[in-house]
Amino acid sequence: MNREAEIIQSLRAAASLTPTLTVKQYQLWSRDRDVPTFLDVLNFYGSWTGALKAAGLVESRKQYTQQELVAALRLALEQEGRLTSTHYQQWAKGQVVPSLGDIISHFGSWSLAVKTVERLEELHFTVQPEREKAEIVQSLLEASRVVVPFNAVTYQKWAKQHKRPSVAKISRRYGSWKRALAELELRESCDGKQ
User: Fold this and answer.
1) For the purposes of burial, counting CB atoms within 10 Å of the CB of 53, is it exposed (0-12), middle (13-18) or buried (19 or more)?
2) What is the pTM for the complete model shown?
3) d(Cα 74, Cα 67) in Å, to the nearest integer?
4) What span, in angstroms and rounded, lies between the C-alpha atoms of 56 and 16?
């Protein structure tokens, strides 16, 4: 039997015991058996979802992108205050959002989904703000030299044309448009004079 057939047979056998086959369930099932390990499956297919699809174990319902799944998890965390599978299920009831099964099928387990969200949040709050701030500073300094008169209205038009941070984004980052200008020692002008 070739490797792919062996993996598919193992996945189907493990899935016959549960409605949604998770990584953890597969690991427990395969522990004392002479079958491909979870890592073998992952190395062969690249993702848990890909393996489940190949084995015909993923239902043909709406397939969510990772971005949609992460967005739902973030929203649930924000509104529930905690990100447990129980809290998520309660939060998701009656809403058009990915089910717990969708999340587990995509990430392979609830804990892997949570770790992905935590890692993305960590990246967002450590790297992104500094990059964002640098982009805002650069945009404001450049605009103050070329936009006449320089104010929130004229900056907004310039920013839209040049795909730069909006006045709203700047205000969120600094607390207000005026504070951003004050921190950079810039002033608005009515006639092009600063």
Assistant:
1) middle
2) 0.37
3) 10
4) 12
Tell which wins on pLDDT, 129 or 185.
185
Taking only the tens place, the pLDDT of each residue in 136-188 is: 999 999 999 999 999 999 999 999 999 999 988 888 777 888 988 988 889 89
Residue whose structure tokens are 């709050």 = 125
Q: Which ranges of 31-176 would DSSP assign to H, the alpha helix?
A: 38-45, 48-54, 66-80, 85-92, 100-107, 110-126, 128-146, 152-162, 167-174
The CA distance from 64 to 60, in Å, is 11
Sequence-distant (≥ 6) Cβ neighbours of residue 79 within 8 angstroms:
91
For residue 33, give every residue at least 6 positions away whose Cβ sits within 8 Å of its Cβ, in sequence order, or none: 10
Q: Using an 8 Å Cβ cutoff, are 21 and 57 in contact?
A: yes
Task: Please provide the distance, in angstroms rounded to a whole number, between the alpha carbons at the two ends of the chain.
Answer: 78
The mean predicted confidence, pLDDT, of the chain is 84
- What's the confidence (pLDDT) of residue 77? 83
DSSP assignment letter at 63: P
Whether the CB-CB separation of 108 and 57 falls below 8 Å is answered with: no
